Amino acid sequence: MRLSLISVVLVAVGAVACGSDPAPVQRHGSNTPPADDQDNAPPGPNDTKPPADPGTPPPVGTPEPPGTWADGHVVSGNINIPAGTTVTIAAGAQIKIAPDAAITVAGELIGTAGATHAKLAPTSGTWSGLVVAQGGKLTLDSVDIAAAKIGIWTQKGNVDATYANGTMDANQPFQMEAGSKMSVSKSTVKAAAASALAGTFNASYMTYDKGTSEGLYMNDAAGSMTFSDSTLKGAGGGDYIVSSAASLIKVEYSTITGSHCPFHFSAPGPAKYEVDHISDDTNGYGWMLYGSGAGPHTISNSNFTDSYVNIEMTGTNGKVTLTNNFFINGSAGANKLQTAATVASTANARIANAKPR
Question: What's the whole-model pTM score?
Fold first, then answer.
């Protein structure tokens, strides 16, 4: 049933164990939430599962001389591109990497666009992935990353890490330390486990498939994550954009589907969040806003078609304004919003351009 107005009620109920829901998300109207989605316990701390701690990065290994890696180049063990050294991956080069080996970049690693993508892949099994160290710079364009344990690991004080026009298949695509930065654009990413974000993360025109795991998790009060024109999809299970601390979370012109909760914030949560022109399609529960800073926070021009409740906001949240959003409420009926939420207006029809441009 579509509601032309949202019922704004003071709620002191609604803790849910999001991360514990193993059931696939089903189509709107047919998903029965688990029993713990219906209990009367007050919200607690973040009840999603944070990404597993990977420990310390792999050993830096043997120093690599400057030069160009041609097709067939072999990385036979852990290597280090030292400060002041530049290594270039030739366009279309297929780079063979020994199982469990890692490439640490303290200098610069460049991959340039070509008619055929270059590729970093293990000779068998999996390899450890790329580590962009303090002072290191990664610039990969049209370079695919296959069968990596951690696709890109950015360490505090890296100069930059950019990944564009590539396909990444990794157990954990991204591991970011506080004080690091990474940008992903026009790329397809497939994950088996949650990415741990900190520092500054920007994604545009990214397709990210989380499978049944948690999605993208930030716990860094100084960190920010921005998504634009992106498709975030999965096969049910965990939550998608999760934060227990951030300076800013901004999502615009994107779609989110196939998660338990598309957004899950818990105290202290993001200091500010801005959501505009997104479609929250066929997720299991809906938004769980259990803690945020003073804001101001805005949710505008977006579509909500969750299976249970579109938005549940409890706990300590800053001021939230909802403007021109389209709601189809699930089996639990009306949204559950604190008095901190102001519904400025609702839309009478689905927002057509609430998706990647």
Answer: 0.87
